[in-house]
Amino acid sequence: MTSQTYRPPTADQIGRAPKVLLHDHLDGGLRPGTIIELAREAGYEALPEQESDKLGLWFREAADSGSLERYLETFAHTCAVMQTRDALFRVAAECAEDLAADGVVYAEVRYAPEQHLESGLTLQEVVEAVNEGFREGERRARADGNRIRVGALLTAMRHAARALEIAELANSYRDSGVVGFDIAGAEAGFPPTRHLDAFEYLKRENNHFTIHAGEAFGLPSIWQALQWCGADRLGHGVRIIDDIEVAEDGSVELGRLAAYVRDKRVPLELCPSSNLQTGAAASIAEHPIGLLRKLHFRATVNTDNRLMSGTSMSREFELLVDAFAYTLDDMQWFTVNAMKSAFIPFDERLAMINDVIKPGYAELKSEWLFK
Ligand SMILES: O=c1[nH]cnc2c1ncn2[C@H]1C[C@H](O)[C@@H](CO)O1
Ligand SMILES: [Zn+2]
Question: Which atom of ligand 1 sits closest to the CA of residue 79?
């Protein structure tokens, strides 16, 4: 065996590798057992299953519909049990704990405050409960020997009309735990420009935002998100592939928009498993991430909704390693891309890359020498 031999990272190494997560929904990542307990406490009787394994399976199967609209229907159950301060605190704390146990060192977790007002909480109370939960989860992780930092992204629902209000909310908490803004929900029929006032406001405030675009709808959505709204990153953005042509001889031609996205280093928050469920890709092996990585787009790997996809950051990387024979160097590349694209200040991103991510991968990459 020479040092040139391909050594696929083992599942254990993938688990221990430092990982960075930019696209994860708080209401898409609850533990099934927690949903059942919270539903009992809240008197919510519409859960389709009462046993946690069965409930987890139900979410995965119900989300496996091939349509974003039907996929989104499953969130009615998670949002229903996230209506009190204690429930939000618990879900946020467990989220940080679960991510840290999976080797995630930095995460931006998003949710839509407007979906958590049914029991009388104010928008501010929602944000504060989630922030306190994240801090608690960070502390619990530390007690378990794991290190993680979690920032919140506030999402506005694109079918609703509260985007400016939520953008103002995000801005008012920018120094206390909220690192940016997003819009989510059904994409077809709800173009990003519908919320232009929110994006223009955030730009005037020198604040950061990402936009779900190019998931269920194609290039026009990506184009609007970037050129009309000024998004810093693209949530998914996977359909940028429609603007890339690969000829029979393997030569590649980028259209104007794809060239812009690559030239400007626009981060793509790719979510492979989620895309299989909503129909944006047929299999992991056929997922555009393979080509986008080869072409050096600023691609990142994300979970989207751990509950609905039955996934984790480690699992997403395991699937990619199987499909594309990725190495620890590839994993490091995706992870550094993600850290470069995070919404926290430059000096913190740099320290994360140089003092946490690179040493973590160096340690893993040298293990074969001592076997
Ligand atoms: O992948 C997605 N695309 C669009 N919207 C999504 C996706 N995953 C979750 N959402 C929605 C449903 C949640 O209730 C909301 C806030 O997290 O965001
Ligand atoms: Zn999403």
Answer: 14
Asked if the structure places residue 2 within a domain, the reply is no
The single-letter DSSP state of residue 172 is: H
The pLDDT value recorded for residue 50 is 97
**Residue 236, SS3?**
strand
Domain assignment present for 3:
no
Q: How far apart are CA 117 and CA 140, in angstroms?
A: 27
Instruction: Give yes or no for a contact between 75 and 28, defined as CB atoms under 8 angstroms apart.
Output: yes
Per-residue confidence (pLDDT) for residue 209, from 0 to 100? 98
Q: Is the CB of residue 91 below 6 angstroms from any atom belonging to ligand 1?
A: no
Q: Residue 15, SS3?
A: helix
CB count within 10 Å of CB 365 equals 18
110 lines ligand 1 (CB under 6 A): yes
- Nearest ligand for residue 159 CA: 1
């909704």: which residue's tokens? 305
281 DSSP β-pair partners = none
> Nearest ligand, CA of residue 29?
1
111: domain CATH number is 3.20.20.140
Domain of residue 240, residue span = 11-370
Tally of domains within the chain: 1
pLDDT of residue 2: 53
Nearest residue (by CA) to ligand 1, atom 5, is 185
Mean pLDDT of the 95-102 span: 98
Q: What is the pLDDT of residue 4?
A: 66
Q: Which long-range contacts (CB under 8 A, 24 or more apart) does 251-260 make?
A: 252/291, 252/295, 254/295, 257/219, 257/222, 257/223, 257/226, 260/226
**Residues belonging to the active site:** 215
ipTM over 0.90: yes
Q: Would the CB of 237 count as within 6 Å of ligand 1?
A: no
Q: Give the number of other CB atoms < 10 A from CB of residue 143.
A: 9
Q: Is 6 within a domain? A: no
Stated as kind and residue range, the H or E segment containing 33 is: helix 32-42
Domain contains 5: no
